[in-house]
């Protein structure tokens, strides 16, 4: 089916079933099925220890968020393991932040992996940085500011080939207008697990599908690219049917298949729109129509394979 047909038959059928003011949870309950999860996308903030330039002072996120608060938030969501993802400290503090996160694993055994911040736009400094990471067993991958490497592709390609010879993965935070360009770049690099964060950040609330879907198609053609189902609840989700979100999710299933999808909460950033429980519940509703084998892959299996946990 072409994209227009997919949109017409999927989205508009769902919209036709919507009613004004419908709740997100106006759906039948899931009975008799459990959803153990690996949460592949958790941030932690400690403003006494680090600076976070991307968080405005007036933001509700401008305070310390630690693992004990995360465990309280996730207590009803059947999280078995979790992955810490770098939280936006200045680049010079990236190793310190990774070590800080690793230290928490002694008291919080569900923390199984750390994704460190990295700069792959410099082919001289990155090899040294990679050697430092290899001494830390809990570090399973890196995340990069993509804009820098799009402007300096040659050092990135060289560093990707170096990263591919390690066991690390690469997390990518991309906007819809960066998906296709990044896919073109990744085709020139050696294969290693690359994980698209937050579904590529589609504008679900406004149903802005076209540019995002083209980029997703390009990325999904690369067999070692995975996708996190995270940060998917729009600002006004409580006033809309889940069918809007399901439309984008089903497109990801069509393109990536369940062998390359995984769950992530994006806690505590998700608190700007929802609660951890509602995020987890929404994810369960998205995957409920699929088989137990597919659900296992998306909830646990793919994350354990990619992050080696």
Question: What is the structure about, briefly put?
Answer:
The protein is an alpha/beta fold. It is 39% helix and 13% strand.
What can you see in these coordinates?
The protein is an alpha/beta fold and 309 residues long. The protein is built from eleven helices and eight strands. The protein has helices at 3-16, 67-73, 94-104, 125-134, 146-151, 153-164, 179-186, 210-220, 243-256, 276-287, 292-306; strands at 37-42, 79-85, 111-117, 139-144, 169-172, 194-196, 225-229, 261-263. α7 packs parallel to α8 (210-220) and α8 (210-220) runs parallel beside α9. The model is unreliable at 1-31 (pLDDT under 50).
Task: Give structural attributes.
11 helices; eight-stranded parallel beta sheet; disordered N terminus; 309 residues; globular; alpha/beta
Task: Summarize the topology.
Blueprint: H1 3-16, E1 37-42, H2 67-73, E2 79-85, H3 94-104, E3 111-117, H4 125-134, E4 139-144, H5 146-151, H6 153-164, E5 169-172, H7 179-186, E6 194-196, H8 210-220, E7 225-229, H9 243-256, E8 261-263, H10 276-287, H11 292-306
Parallel strand pairs: 1-2, 2-3, 3-4, 4-5, 5-6, 6-7, 7-8
């Amino acid at each position: 089916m072409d994209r227009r047909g997919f949109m017409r038959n999927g989205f508009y059928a769902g919209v036709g079933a919507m009613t004004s003011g419908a709740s997100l949870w106006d759906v039948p309950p899931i009975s008799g099925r459990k959803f153990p999860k690996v949460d592949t996308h958790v941030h932690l903030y400690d403003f006494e220890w680090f600076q976070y330039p991307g968080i405005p002072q007036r933001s509700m996120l401008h305070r310390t968020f630690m693992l004990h608060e995360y465990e309280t938030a996730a207590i009803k969501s059947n999280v078995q393991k979790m992955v810490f993802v770098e939280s936006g400290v200045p680049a010079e503090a990236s190793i310190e932040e990774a070590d800080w996160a690793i230290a928490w694993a002694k008291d919080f055994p569900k923390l199984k992996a750390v994704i460190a911040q990295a700069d792959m736009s410099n082919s001289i400094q990155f090899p040294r940085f990679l050697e430092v990471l290899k001494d830390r067993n809990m570090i399973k991958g890196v995340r990069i500011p993509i804009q820098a490497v799009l402007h300096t592709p040659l050092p990135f390609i060289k560093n990707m080939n170096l990263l591919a010879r390690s066991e690390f993965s690469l997390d990518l935070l991309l906007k819809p207008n960066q998906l296709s360009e990044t896919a073109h770049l990744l085709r020139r690099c050696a294969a290693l697990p690359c994980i698209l964060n937050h579904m590529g950040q589609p504008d679900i609330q406004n149903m802005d599908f076209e540019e995002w879907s083209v980029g997703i198609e390009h990325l999904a053609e690369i067999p070692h690219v995975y996708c996190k189902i995270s940060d998917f609840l729009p600002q006004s989700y409580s006033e809309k049917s889940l069918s809007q979100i399901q439309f984008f999710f089903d497109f990801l299933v069509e393109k990536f298949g369940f062998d390359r999808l995984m769950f992530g909460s994006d806690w505590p950033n998700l608190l700007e729109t929802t609660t951890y429980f509602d995020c987890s519940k929404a994810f369960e509703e998205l995957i409920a129509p699929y088989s137990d084998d597919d659900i296992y892959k998306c909830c646990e299996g793919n994350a354990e394979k990619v992050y080696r946990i």
